Amino acid sequence: MVCGGACGVGRLFLDFGCCWRVYRALVKSTVPKVTVQRLPVYLHCLEGMSGQEHVSSDQLAAMAGVNPAKVRKDLSFLGTFGVRGVGYDLDQLKFQIRLELGLEEEWTVVIVGVGNLGRALANYAGFTERGFRVVALFDPDPAKIGSKVDGITIEPLEDLEQSVRSKGAAIGVVTTPAVVAQETAETLAAAGIRSILNFAPTVIKPPEGIDVRRVDLSTELQVLSFYMHRRSR
Amino acid sequence: MVCGGACGVGRLFLDFGCCWRVYRALVKSTVPKVTVQRLPVYLHCLEGMSGQEHVSSDQLAAMAGVNPAKVRKDLSFLGTFGVRGVGYDLDQLKFQIRLELGLEEEWTVVIVGVGNLGRALANYAGFTERGFRVVALFDPDPAKIGSKVDGITIEPLEDLEQSVRSKGAAIGVVTTPAVVAQETAETLAAAGIRSILNFAPTVIKPPEGIDVRRVDLSTELQVLSFYMHRRSR
DNA sequence: ACATGTGAAGCGCTTCACAGCG
DNA sequence: CGCTGTGAAGCGCTTCACATGT
After folding, report:
1. What confidence tens digit (pLDDT) does each residue in B55-106 have?
2. B101, A36: Cβ pair inside 8 Å?
3. pLDDT band at A18, cuts 50/70/90?
4. In this complex, how many residue pairs, one in chain A and one in chain B, have their CB atoms less than 8 Å apart?
5. Residues of B numbered 23-52 whose beta carbons fall under 8 angstroms of chain A's beta carbons: which are they?
6. Is the overall model pTM greater than 0.85, yes or no?
7. How far apart are CA B207 and CA B190, in angstroms?
8. What residues contact B2, with CB distance under 8 A and at least 6 apart?
9. Which domains does chain B have, with CATH numbers?
């Protein structure tokens, strides 16, 4: 980037001299996407530490498997609370990351599609540990309706909209077959869900105003396959 | 990048004039990482199409939710077999992607840790559909050993090395608790596994020569949390 | 006329290197 | 001295725009 040049934001052109920081703060006010993805990793590493009051970027970097400079830059987006010559205060750092990630709020989750994967997720301890509470399960199969998984009763699909709305759920997890994933996402959106985590092996076109993240298990295997294939040539 | 400038590769500096393509072909010979991640998505989209002989980059881009130019550039790494004014031959394109991803080989998979998630993955149809065959399951729990999941007998951890070696398995899926994930990865590496897919909520330091990919379900939720939190400020 | 293939510009993340400060 | 915070350079991916080809 040419420093001191003009920054184009949509059709608007602004000149901040050499100050990209001002640009970020005033115009975008955003933490880089890649940083957001690393914050949970840092948090996890920090939570596994004990018996020390401070952490250095080198230490955290080694645990998270990244470059120390990256750790420092990432953390600098949350504010300036490291101590030179010492490191970061462990408790404060954990708190700041949780705050930034919005983990101080308790988010409620519903899961649509109680197959093997849906059931596994309903039982997944990692959700509860992070403050995500599963409040409802939905499935179209009459044989499943009424039975419980981890204490939560499986409800019929027809009740989805009303149930989600009354519980004020924020996140919808889609573990349905691929063919009904889009439809499911739209129903969830209509019911007032704000974000969707999609495990169905298909691309969901995000409904208006909804943030969709995709986790595709077989995609991951295919990526591994590529690199194995490559290495053996 | 300054075109016509020098390209540094390690300590070696080479000058290829303006030709980044030559540089890629001769020195790196690699498809960009992000492209590799998108190829499975394209493939999935193509497999869902029928009743037409050709696809255009615009069409594929719309289905995959990306920019058309990106599709063309991605595909150009696999070779030059689009037809101007027409598009890509559907069957040929599917074949080329499968070839590039190494999906023409059948990879064998073992799963370590048969909890809810491990069981879900053992049953996961998406693996079989893509040519990944689960050949063994391992768990330390004596109560589980000997029972079957989807036709595969659960074996004790002690048999892992010998069993993996004799079956010539290529991919190890780690669905153990976080505390034993590293250890598990090293055992898998010692047994001759070549790649690891890690679902344990922790960072595995890759054993020598092993490619490790990490899928963390709660990380994904935390990323969603960040953006929801952000929006409501 | 239409869609690919691709230089080149744009943009954002990574990494270096060091000033700044306890 | 040690470690953070950060300009600036490096690098790779994205996107544009259009030459190229059918």
Report:
1. 999 999 999 999 999 999 999 999 999 999 999 999 999 999 999 999 999 9
2. no
3. very low
4. 182
5. 30-31, 36-37, 39-41, 43-45, 48
6. yes
7. 9
8. none
9. 1-30 (no CATH), 33-101 (1.10.10.10), 107-219 (3.40.50.720)
